[in-house]
Amino acid sequence: MKLLINRANCQVVCLAVTTVGWILSTMSMGLTEWRVWHMNNASVSPPGVALVGLWKVCIYHSASYFDRATPCHRYPYRDTYLPLDIRVARHLLLTASILGLLGKVSVVFALRSLYPGIHTSATCNSFVVPGIVNVASSICISIAVIWSYHSVMNDEGIAFPPSLPIPFKPAKQEMGNAIIVACLAAFMMVLSGLFHLSYKVPLNNQ
Questions:
Q1: Fewer CB within 10 Å, N side or C side of the chain?
Q2: What is the Cα–Cα distance from 66 to 86, expressed in whole angstroms?
Q3: What pLDDT shows up at residue 1?
Q4: How far is CA 178 from each of CA 6, 22, 78, 166, rounded to the nearest angstrom?
């Protein structure tokens, strides 16, 4: 009985890790700092910094992000000028968010079979489902991160509409904090998923 409770407590910790990973994944999706563009060509646009996110872009005509920015431009869902990596990343992170939520719900149901006093007739490892779902969520986040990293490293440009004072390519671009947040989310989701998959059903429950 003591071993069973200890195993249940470990899965509760994994649930907490899954929750944090899901929150970070959802948070990274809304952040604008996926790409940081440094614009120094005054003939094309005023010097400043553009924060390119998955859903909007914000322009700062100052050296500091905390200074006043121009109103952020939200991308219409069917904007064709957005590169493929941004459009795919939006869908991947939405999928990861849904999978993370499903993983949390399935863990709660799986935990019911571990604590004493709750009858269940399950004879298989009920943590397989949340494990697979969390790993799948981590894969979705990782693909979005790797593709965005590849775009930044190859200095790929974006053909923003003429109404936005942003050049096709900046003088310099770098990864933003949103990618770091997404990396942490992917790590936590795969970690919790692997722990769930490694759970062994006690012999007296089989």
A1: N
A2: 25
A3: 46
A4: 36, 14, 23, 20
Sheet containing strand 48-52, strands side by side: 73-74, 56-60, 48-52, 35-39, 172-175
The H or E element that residue 187 is part of is helix 177-197
Report d(CA 109, CA 167) in Å as an integer. 51
What number of residues does the chain have?
206
Rounded to 5°, the CA angle 170-35-159 comes to 50
User: Is residue 29 within 8 Å of 93, Cβ to Cβ?
Assistant: yes
| Cα 99 → chain centroid | 11
C-alpha distance across the termini of the chain, in Å: 15
Amino acid at 126: S
Using one digit for the tens of pLDDT, what is the confidence trace for 83-108?
Answer: 899 999 999 999 999 999 998 888 88
Nearest in space to 68 (alpha carbons), one of 53, 52, 48: 48
What's the rounded Cα separation, in Å, for the pair 99 and 188? 14
For 154, the 3-state DSSP assignment is coil
pLDDT tens track for 137-161: 999 999 999 999 999 999 898 988 8
Distances (CA, A) of 18 to 69, 88, 111: 35, 23, 14
Q: Phi, psi (5° rounding) for residue 92? A: -65, -45
Cβ atoms 166, 37 nearer than 8 A: yes
H or E segment and range at residue 173: strand 172-175
Contact 45, 166 (CB under 8 A): yes
